[in-house]
Write a structure and sequence with these properties.
By secondary structure, the protein is an all-alpha fold. The chain has two helices and no strands. The longest helix has 34 residues. The mean pLDDT is 77.
Length: 79
């Protein structure tokens, strides 16, 4: 049985350009098969799940940062 060398790097065995091209090709194929309404629908769904973002809601960003700090502090005490 032949031993395969493990590829290094990200993407397609370190070939970021080909990985990017493959992603673009897949996205275009999805756009052709599903159409504009598909993207509108998933966009609305995502907007309902995550209605705000940090740029438009600084308080949300602050709360998120405080929660992460508390989690890190608790994890440090458990070691």
């Amino acid at each position: 049985m032949a031993v395969r060398k493990k590829a290094k790097g990200k993407g397609w065995h370190g070939d970021a350009k080909r990985h990017s091209m493959a992603g673009r090709k897949g996205g275009l194929a999805t756009a052709r098969t599903h159409g504009d309404e598909f993207y509108r629908k998933i966009g609305r769904k995502g907007g309902r799940v995550s209605p705000g973002n940090f740029k438009n809601n600084p308080n949300r960003a602050r709360e998120e940062k405080e929660e992460k700090q508390e989690e890190n502090h608790e994890e440090g005490n458990n070691i």
